[in-house]
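Key result, reporting period 2: structure in, sequence out.
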């Protein structure tokens, strides 16, 4: 049965948003980052490979820590901030660092084009998280800030090195194969984070009780249950 025109537009928008949100999943971005690190390590610069890996690990650690913190304790205090967006964070650092590597040593029009495409793509992934109802604007903003800072650390360290122009064909083939193999893969990272947050939440509740204050949870926006990734799972926290 065909959808009514208005509902059909919504279905197409949701499908497009899911496509972009899958491009920001850790199950896809972590293999992309590892392939980038391996290509740099074996064919170009081991120091540059380490810088890329360092930035991605930093972003992953920070966003995981923030998710655990806000899921376990800070939801009592900050409306609209239940779980910072890992998709936005990892997209900013992975696509940002790979874009910086590709742009290095090329004419400024090419660098400007690569930079613009990366910004637009990361922004589209971030918007898809809000469109699907998985995150609020504040949660996406926090994720982008964390990923952006990790990317800045990479770019700042890279600027101290001699410009290195990577072989776009070699990189392109390797990353294309990674896209074909890993796109659509979703890691159960959110389940692990929620489990860890629950364990820590007991400590938070105990501390609040010991202080003699009554914890009052700040109202959180309703979460969408329209997709099968983390939206349905994190709705349990709302």
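The corresponding designed sequence is given below.
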């Amino acid at each position: 049965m065909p959808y009514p025109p208005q509902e059909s537009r919504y279905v197409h928008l949701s499908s497009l948003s899911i496509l972009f949100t899958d491009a920001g999943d850790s199950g896809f971005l972590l293999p992309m980052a590892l392939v980038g690190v391996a290509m740099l390590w074996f064919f170009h610069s081991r120091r540059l490979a380490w810088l890329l890996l360092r930035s991605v690990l930093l972003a992953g650690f920070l966003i995981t820590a923030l998710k655990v913190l806000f899921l376990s304790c800070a939801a009592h205090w900050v409306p609209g901030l239940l779980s910072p967006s890992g998709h936005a964070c990892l997209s900013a650092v992975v696509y940002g660092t790979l874009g910086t590597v590709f742009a290095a040593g090329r004419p400024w029009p090419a660098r400007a084009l690569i930079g613009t495409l990366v910004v637009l793509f990361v922004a589209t992934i971030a918007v898809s998280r809000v469109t699907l109802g998985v995150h609020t604007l504040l949660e996406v903003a926090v994720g982008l800030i964390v990923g952006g800072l990790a990317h800045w650390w990479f770019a700042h360290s890279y600027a101290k090195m001699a410009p290195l122009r990577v072989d776009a064909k070699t990189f392109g083939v390797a990353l294309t194969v990674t896209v074909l193999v890993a796109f659509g893969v979703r890691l159960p990272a959110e389940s692990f984070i929620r489990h860890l947050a629950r364990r820590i939440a007991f400590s938070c509740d105990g501390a609040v009780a010991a202080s003699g204050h009554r914890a009052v949870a700040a109202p959180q926006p309703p979460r969408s249950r329209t997709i099968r990734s983390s939206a349905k799972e994190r709705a349990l926290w709302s």
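The chain has a mean pLDDT of 79. Residues 108 and 141 are 29 Å apart (CA to CA). This case is discussed further under Risks and Mitigation.
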